[in-house]
Design brief:
The protein is mainly alpha-helical and 74 residues long. It is 50% helix and 11% strand.
């Protein structure tokens, strides 16, 4: 994932990046559901990352990495 900026619950700006592994389980839906499934997944993951970081104060973001990973899995 490219770097992006997010704001924590206590209004601190942080820079996020990540790695996404994709496993397509329904090739028909991936082929015909959207024009560009990789772009759609990238947008979904970026939005989810920002949303989840926004629910935590800065101190908790470092402690809650595993919980964040579980919430971001789509």
């Amino acid at each position: 994932m490219p770097e992006q900026t997010a704001i924590t619950q206590d209004n601190v700006s942080v820079i996020l990046d990540g790695v996404v592994y994709i496993k397509i389980v329904d090739p028909v839906a991936a082929s015909y559901g959207v024009k560009n499934p990789l772009h759609a997944l990238t947008q979904l993951v970026q939005t989810t990352m920002r949303s989840e970081i926004g629910t935590l104060p800065l101190d908790k973001t470092f402690e809650e990495r595993e919980a964040l990973n579980a919430k971001i899995v789509v």
